[in-house]
Design brief:
Blueprint lengths: L3 H4 L11 H5 L1 H20 L10 H12 L2 H18 L14 H15 L5 H15 L10 H20 L5 H18 L3 H8 L3 H16 L5 H11 L8 H19 L9 H22 L15 H13 L1
Helix pairs in contact: 3-4, 3-5, 4-5, 4-6, 5-6, 6-8, 7-8, 7-9, 8-9, 8-11, 11-12, 11-14, 13-14, 14-15
Amino acid sequence: MYNAIYVRAYIIDFSVVGDYLMKNGETVENLLFLTEKLKKDLESGAKIPVSDYSIGQACIYLYDETGNDDYRKLADSLHERLIGFLDTDESSISLSAIKDMCFYMPFYTDYETRWNKKNGYNDICDRFRSAFELIRDDGLNGTYCSEIITNKIFFLKTVVESLCYMSIQIYEDYRLLEDILRQGIRELFFDLRSIDKICGLEDDVKICACYVLLMGIKEGHIDAEKYEGLAIRLLNIDADEDLDTTFQDHIDEDLKTNIETDADLKEDIDSDSEIKKISLMKMRSFLIKEFINDDSIGIKPSESPCSPNVRKLMIDAYIMM
């Protein structure tokens, strides 16, 4: 993902979003940069990296917020390119490719639900079913390899986000994804040994695991009483930590860091390390603010699979991950 530190180095025309930008400046600033880059790549006919399919969610988000048809057209073009990608060997389900699913499956599900009469639902379900069978292969049972656990966590992130976009009206398909999410989480955290292994992973993977749990709780897919304590453990929240001020304190520190590093990302600073540190800090604070301090459970209107507040949460998480 592109971090805001990089994005601020670019001059962007903000006129298309008007007053909305004043309320959500950083989110929109990041998304405008990403969508402009994507538009240029698509127009040039260049092959786009798999990660860029996730920008489709940004296109839909900006279309909803601004009503600008250019974002709808960009989403249409990206969907067309995605359908071509899904017909290639590059998109075939394998252990090495499971992490890549998080880049295109949420957008694929969102677009099919909103604008393609759900025609791709059979393919979506087949892909999730195949991937889930693969990561649950008997040969992997009882295996605590960090790479395998990481793949499972990113797969579950893909499932929980795609489920937010899937229409509950197609109940059989919706229930399939929900069952995969529940069973996947149950198997991932099935004993203390697996939990300890997850707690020993890289911070970004732990944050992703926490995001899966908290999003699953917020959307009502998994039991809060059973899993919220585990999410708090993954966030390393101290008993005496003031959660009400954590988010703003961290953002203030982030702004201070930006002032110190934004000009040229000074040569004596390890910029990649600094960016990752800031990103993880913001993501942790974001999860505390939006999930730990907010006990509301998402309810899906029948005609709108993803409520606006949940879509905004995923977009914010997308920017920071």
